[in-house]
Amino acid sequence: MNWKQLKIASLDEITAWAETQPWCRAMTDCAQDAEWHSEGDVWTHTKMVCEQLTQLEEWPELSAHDRTVLVFTALFHDAAKPLTSRVDPDTGRITSPNHAVKGEHLVRGVLRDLGCDLETREQIARLVRYHGRPAFLLERTEPTHEVVRLSWLVENRLLYLFALADTRGRSTESMTRPEENLNYWKLLSEESACYDKQYSFAYAHARFLFFRQREPNLHYVPHEEFSCQVTVMVGLPGSGKDTWLSRNRSDLPVVALDDIRGELNVDPTDNQGQVVQLARERCREHLRAGTSFAFNATNTMKQTRGRWIDLCADYNARIELIYVEPLFKDLLKQNKSRQNPVPEQVIKKLAAKCELPTWAEGHTLILSNGE
């Protein structure tokens, strides 16, 4: 089945399809800690969560899109437990550290292969990534900051509804306290006016600083006057970043790592120190002059692009993040037509590790399918 078929399929049809997939068979063989999951293996819990979704009081009122998002969030929320589960040699307890983070990458890859549209895929992937957060709200130093942050990464309403189903979709009896925590998540989100929408900051720059500050002030309203705007391109090799720039920001000078490699005759597999050094200096030249420009590189890892964002923020630049991703088959085809194509296996490895940009990183975010 492909995404077009799956998004209109019944829950029984979806679970039947899932049971033919290797990631699902791995869940069937993956035990869980009995104190939290006395129902047994991960797939048993997953099916219970899917069933609990349909029993939610709010379920009949949800749009078809929201139902699809929640069902596939349920399907994949613990799909990475087989990759992360381990038994503590001292206590015998089973833990699955970072299964939500790995689950985000797993579901992104599966949905990409199925042909899921970019926006829906990322909505599901981020819900998988953050699905466990509501239950631990009271452990946060600033609970209000938590719901505000998450409102810019997921929709708190869908996160709350999924968390309810996740809590109820298990056989363990002593789960009343976590559900109370979930209700507090909903209440606090509603009080902060970010339950079914993003929290409304005074300016984009106020949000930008909120996410960057170690001890953020939710009500701080900074002066919003920028020296220039930097368009930071993000995307796999062959995704069409150059094409996007030529169509949408053709007036901007461009600092591109590929161009600098060509100038210096440095292969992508060689040491990139000289390339990065020259790129940083060219960025600084634009920033010092207050000239808006585009920075074009793969930038698919958050930590890597964060260094460039930090550089631009130090010069008080407005940061515009553009992520470009066409259908994967088209991306591979476009890569082959490049003057210096990247090996297909390398692209697939980069795709598996790709960390898409979020609203937490810049003033503006555009996710483009390359059209």
TrEMBL record:
GO terms for molecular function: nucleotide binding. This is HD domain protein. SUPFAM superfamilies: HD-domain/PDEase-like, P-loop containing nucleoside triphosphate hydrolases. It comes from the Bacteria. Residues 42-146 form the HD domain. InterPro entries: HD/PDEase_dom, HD_domain, HDIG_dom, P-loop_NTPase, tRNA_CCA-adding_enzyme. Keywords: Nucleotide-binding. It holds the Pfam family AAA_33. It comes from Neorhodopirellula pilleata.
